[in-house]
Design goal:
With about 550 residues, the protein is mainly β. Helix content is about 10%, strand content about 45%. The chain contains six helices and 26 strands. The strands form four sheets. The protein has a 16-stranded antiparallel beta barrel. Strand 10 and strand 11 form a beta hairpin.
């Protein structure tokens, strides 16, 4: 294990971290200042009663925070800025959220709150109305990367604000870490993994428009060639395949628009365009999964499961009905180039299809297939046919959450004279308990056929240009929130990774390499919907009773 150019990259990451923290500080202050002005007043609903209902008395009035009410260990002075509003009263009509099932919102019954013409909230979720529909609602907790889905009960870490007819949200995750990869091929780096995702919703015509951007400063906060990660492969640096590194994500990860039209009260049709964007292929990208919320490292099976989350040119369309979602994409299948700051133009000659099903708010299942035309620039004659399947489960706990995922991906690669089948299996799970504590794991078995450079094959006496090895990666870690404010959360954590491999690779990797990471994580605080509903007279969710 060696430190290489630590001071050079340390200074680079330090200045980037200072810039990011400054930007986030301004954003937090801005959201706090506008909190009292950005709220949507609940629309009054008629109450079935033989006699006129009395006006609410002062004793029945409550302070109304923003929809994104978050956990707070102590009362905030910003409460003085909040508006006093009457408690929403239940109406005789069916509840928008109470009717929902599967891919839509589900739960609260008469405790649901109508936050205005666009946003709806219950004690189990937050939703955005589709067009003028009263009960067809898009579950915000279910949003993954691109058009993918995760369980609707997944925790939400974000800022949110109402600005006129817009609903605005901001998600981000910034992890500064000391990354020490073991064995002869391992190095140690101080670096920062990060992403930032603003989202905006607005009713347009008969449907609802969603605008989304996703950005990363990893081109500045990762070392040239990427973040050290033993046994990782994929993409190129200086014309050579990246090995034992995770490439940095592009500055522009997603710039997309999605338009959704309700079809009755249970169905919808949508179109999605991204440049860049993500096609309908695979599970949500690893950084969006609740099961990997504390683990910022990419999976070793990333390029067999969810690597198409940055595609420069994507068009997707599909239908939702209850918990069933059918969608298809045409897109540019070429991996992003070595220039991480630009926009790329390649033929849209790849395609994919995905079927997703959510039987309730705690489960999400998907199966997808895609044809990728020449995804790797270094191998322009190699095409990939990718098949993936995943099961995600999320369970809110009394003072926490438990999220788990099992993901399988298979690449069938074909080029003149060569055919390979590579499989990747990933199990990951994160449990949040006693509010501030996290334990997580990731267990993987992955087929790798790009681990050896020509000199390595000569050293080991291998003549095959793409020898395949079954690699196991086993990560165990934990984190604890040091500070939970109304808007942001800061945590410290660490993890250890162990590996299994064929003994033939001992000369390159050592017999038992061990890697570890120590990190500091900054992100928005978790939205506490149950606490907000109790404030307004609603019933808490079952796990909080």
């Amino acid at each position: 294990m060696k430190f290489r150019d630590f001071s050079r990259y340390g200074r680079k990451v330090l200045w980037s971290a200072i810039l990011i923290v400054s930007i986030l500080s301004v954003a937090v202050v801005s959201f706090g200042q506008h909190q009292g002005h950005g709220q949507i007043k609940p629309e009054p609903k008629p109450v079935a009663s033989p006699t006129p209902a009395p006006s609410p008395s002062p004793a029945h009035r409550h302070t109304m925070p923003m929809p994104g009410a978050t956990q707070s260990p102590t009362p905030s002075p910003q409460m003085d800025q909040q508006m006093s509003m009457p408690m929403p009263s239940p109406g005789p009509s069916p509840s928008p959220m109470g009717q929902m099932r599967g891919g839509e919102m589900r739960g609260g019954g008469t405790s649901d709150m109508n936050m205005g013409p666009l946003m709806v909230m219950s004690n189990t979720g937050m939703g955005v109305r589709l067009g003028a529909s009263e009960s067809n609602v898009m579950n915000v907790g279910q949003m993954g990367s691109g058009t993918s889905r995760q369980p609707g009960s997944s925790p939400m870490y974000m800022f949110d604000k109402i600005a006129g007819k817009w609903v605005l949200m901001l998600h981000f995750n910034f992890v500064a870490l000391l990354n020490a990869q073991g064995g002869p091929r391992g190095v140690t780096r101080f670096e920062a993994a990060n992403w930032f995702m603003p989202v905006a919703f607005r009713r347009v015509g008969p449907g609802t428009l969603q605008l989304r951007g996703m950005f990363s400063l990893e081109p500045f906060t990762f070392a040239p060639g990427g973040s050290p990660l033993l046994f990782q492969t994929g993409e190129t640096y200086k014309g050579r395949p990246i090995i034992d590194r995770q490439h940095p994500h592009d500055l522009f990860m997603e710039l997309s628009a999605q338009y959704t039209i309700p079809l009755g009260e249970r169905g919808s049709w949508f179109t999605y365009f991204g440049y860049p964007g993500e096609p309908a292929l695979g599970p949500p990208a690893f950084m969006h999964r609740a099961s990997a919320s504390e683990n910022s490292a990419a999976t070793l099976a990333h390029h067999l499961q969810d690597s198409t989350h940055i595609s420069f040119g994507v068009f997707t369309t599909g239908f939702n009905f209850r918990g069933l979602k059918l969608e298809g994409s045409i897109f540019n299948g070429r991996e992003p180039g070595e220039n991480r700051y630009n926009f790329e133009a390649n033929p849209w000659n790849s395609r994919s299809a995905r079927v997703s099903f959510e039987p309730n708010n705690n489960w999400a299942v998907q199966v997808s297939y895609g044809f990728l035309r020449a995804p790797e620039a270094a191998e322009p004659d190699t095409d990939i046919r990718r098949l993936t399947a995943s099961v995600q489960y999320n369970r809110p706990l009394k003072h926490g959450n438990w999220a788990t995922a099992f993901i399988w991906g298979r690449n069938h690669t074909s080029s003149p004279g060569e055919v390979h089948n590579l499989n990747g299996y990933t199990f990951e799970s994160t449990v949040n308990f006693k509010t501030r504590n996290y334990l997580y794991t990731r267990l993987e078995l992955v087929d790798k056929n790009e681990l050896l450079r020509p000199a390595d094959r000569t050293l080991l006496g291998i003549t095959d240009n793409h020898p395949s090895f079954r690699i196991g990666g086993y990560t165990f870690g934990g984190a604890r929130d040091l500070w939970n404010a109304r808007k942001v959360s800061i945590a410290i954590g660490s993890d250890l990774s162990f590996y299994s491999k064929p003994s033939m690779l001992d000369r390159l990797y050592g017999s038992n390499p061990v890697s570890w990471r120590l990190f500091l994580r900054l992100r928005p605080a978790k939205i506490d919907l149950g606490a907000m509903h109790q404030m307004h007279g609603g019933t808490p969710p079952p796990e909080q009773r």
